[in-house]
Batch of 2 targets.
Target 1
Amino acid sequence: MLTLYRPGTGWLHRMPAGPKLLLILSVVLVVSLLPAHWSTAAIAALVAIVGYTVSGLGPGLRGIRELGHQMFSLRWIMVITLVSQLIFMGPEPAVANTARVTAAIVLAALLSLTTRVTALLDAIERGLRPLERLGLDAARCALLLTVTISTIPVLGRRAAEVRDAQRARGARNNPQTFVIPFLIVALKHADELGDALTARGVR
Amino acid sequence: MSAPAIRLKDVGVRLGEVDVLQNLSLDLQARTVAVIGENGSGKSTFARLLGGLINRTSGELSIMGIDPARRAAELRRRIAIVFSNPDAQIIMPTVAEDVAFSLRADRLPPAELTQRVGAAMERFGLTELAQRPSHDLSGGQKQLLALCGAMVRNPELVIADEPTAYLDARNARRVAEHLLEDAGHRLVLVTHDLALAARCEQVVLFAGGALVGLGEPEEIISQYEAVLAC
Ligand SMILES: Nc1ncnc2c1ncn2[C@@H]1O[C@H](COP(=O)(O)OP(=O)(O)O)[C@@H](O)[C@H]1O
Ligand SMILES: [Mg+2]
């Protein structure tokens, strides 16, 4: 689900990271605010398809294939959203909400697909700089976001290791026995990461 | 290299309720220094002290003429620290971006940044992997990346705390060669690999938070082996 940058030369790739962030954010916002109607499902799907077709991800059907790829990685989120809402809210809101959420996520993914994290980090830092007069440290905030993003895959792998270790000792999948070891592992990672950041020149 | 690069006088470090290092006095003159000792003997604490990650509780400390407690920022610009676990040292999502991250604070012009990053990746054999997701690399490649990220800043002193602990023999050797190679840096290397310690010019031996040996590798390593044999 955590999409990575794909090198490319389309217009969205070439667009400066700051304006691109604002553009994609506003499209995502509009899609998320659509009402829970049948028509919303159609509009959300259309916006996602158009977004992936016109953003210059590559020749021919490259954009649509990428969209398929993204949707495939979201399949469980889609199923869970759809089923839980079908049970509690009925078909129309369930379909509209699922379409809306899925479209928002895949549209947001266009940002990470076409922008290097370094460029994003620079843009966020620049964008936050006016707030420095209010005492905000722009460089630190931008860095915090970056580190958060990059920590997710590491913690995901650590969680799998903890589960494996427990299974190896015959424990069933049990959230209660999972939480404490995972917390310890996560805190240890945070500790090490703090040292590494300091060592690499971050104040 | 006239005045000792690293000088400690009666240094003590207390963490919580524990005196982790006590009455530590030593001058380190050699370009490459190995630090050995059993688990819990205080090696990592010593490395973190030299790296300015923790402060002493008492005594005096000077690293290349700098007192870390007073001028920590300057010290960090001139040294690099390498840890055992590569996962915790890699920050950016691709290899090239992670190397460039170490130079972020310098605000270099883009052309110079690209050049420095390219040269460093070349040196560590990472050029082919430049655009690869850094968290998908093998353990050995990750540690080379961590080392590359440390070395790209041309540090005067490199402090490495068991940098080969998680690596297989081949990758451990590659990492060790890069650390020992004279690229204009001094090295303080914490290690359990006595063959590696023997390749340093000077060896420091810790036991129970105190310095128990300092001198030629051969002498200090046999002193340590004698203790281990008991
Ligand atoms: N933050 C801390 N608080 C209290 N005790 C600590 C702390 N860090 C390390 N120690 C203790 O200090 C001793 C030396 O630890 P360390 O320097 O990590 O040893 P080594 O790296 O040689 O294995 C150990 O007994 C350890 O338990
Ligand atoms: Mg240690």
Target 2
Amino acid sequence: MQQFINTALGGLTTGMVYAAFALALVLIWRSTRVVNFAQAPMAMVTTFVALAVIDAGFSYWIGFAVALAAGLVLGAIMERGVMRHVQGKGEINAVILTLGLFIVLHAAAAVVFGNDFRSFPAPFGVRGIEVGGRTVALTGFGIFTIIAVLVVMGLLVALFRFTDLGLRMRAAAFNPEVARLLGVRVPRMMTLGWALASLVGSLAGLLIAGGSLIHPSYMDSVVVLGFVAAVLGGLDSPLGAVVGGLLLGVTLAFVSGYLGSQLVALAALLILMIVLMVRPGGIFSTTAARRV
Amino acid sequence: MLAVDSLTVSHGPVTALREVSFSAARGAITAVLGANGAGKTTLLRTVSGLHRAGAGSITLDGRPIDRLPAESMVALGLAHVPEGRGVITELSVEENLRLGGLGRGRVRPGDLDLAYDLFGVLAERRNQLAGTLSGGERQMLVIGRALMARPEILLLDEPSLGLAPRVVAQIFALLRRLVVDQGLSVLLVEQNAISALSVADRGVVLHLGRVVADEEASRLAADDQLRHAYLGF
Ligand SMILES: Nc1ncnc2c1ncn2[C@@H]1O[C@H](COP(=O)(O)OP(=O)(O)OP(=O)(O)O)[C@@H](O)[C@H]1O
Ligand SMILES: [Mg+2]
């Protein structure tokens, strides 16, 4: 029983991180129909920025905030400086460009930050907390992870659901031409979409790094799982990304705990195949709008 | 006054408009008529900045607007209702309307009543996704949404498309009312020439991208030769 609970809690924590990463992918996919393969190295870069700030003698929290802000700025720069110039010139070009960015950011990080493993601090304990004399696998940092992701998601939902800006962003994503006719500055909304996505990606990067080692490629394994989580949820649905991430995190924790960790990648693939066979549009695919 | 002068517009190798000139007066309905492919939609899209003219100019009260981006037109008082019912299907009816109002700044809670009073059915469906509306309801939604921005000039692209004659008559009667009561100006693109001329003040006939007639609506409707040649009735 205890192992069961511990496995579930561990899965929930990693699931939250997958969820955040998937959310970052969904935000960009929704607004620009681009699968951003550069999401992982972008998060890696901002995590290294955090480490640089912390190494310079500032607190963890300052590093954390600077990394999120850097994520926002990096996302905006990517959209303005790079992605915008391939917009509307074939979707595959944009996707290949993000693959190119993946490689460039990797190389740049290796040059600037070095190619070694470096340890990244955590603001809370990374040992299990005690409940009734027993230690459960939920760490202080795990609780922080869950809360941080929930807060960011709550803020995003509030932004999209309840604010004028969120309404404009959704309109720009769903129907850019009509949005323009209604006075929405669509390019600006796309920049903002990339910036927010990159911020969420940075959060995922920081949470994965907390209390462990970072390296220019430490995020790469998350790309695959985050992508699977996003597709599970339907790619278009932020809520789907979250549910997909949690589902994946918990399932993979059980596979790893009870069947063996070497089966994790295979299991992820299997889950993806099964879900897509049952619901080709993902778990949260909305029924297609009627065509009059 | 919205004035178009010697406008020439191409889609790649296809020239859709050739030296088109006409003007749409304030407080009047100007109908632009013509067969499929005459260039009507191209004309509206060029006026609202979605498409760039190869040559010629477009002015609003003497001020050139042909270099402005489409997203700045609402602020100038120009609202374009696109062809084929441009509702944003993924947003609710209310969100579509709010978005229309945002074009002119903030939307206060009571503002939506403007559209709900005109089209009662929209109030009943306010929380439904716009994608679930029928064709006629969508047309009401896009017109209501355009009016939310309190435009001075309304550009309408085939509002009668696919609607029952009774609904078309209602919509045209509403346009007339807005013109008379509020001084709205309307540039109405239509294939349905009979209905359009019955409500319009002036009619411009396009044929293969050229203006072949520009007259008072009643005189156009009475011109047998022109009607047979270009309007098919
Ligand atoms: N995006 C485009 N690419 C190429 N050609 C186009 C494009 N849009 C319009 N055309 C061409 O320009 C001409 C005018 O088209 P337009 O859509 O303006 O006609 P219309 O009068 O609105 O017709 P309809 O009554 O069928 O809507 C047509 O010959 C059309 O094929
Ligand atoms: Mg047309």
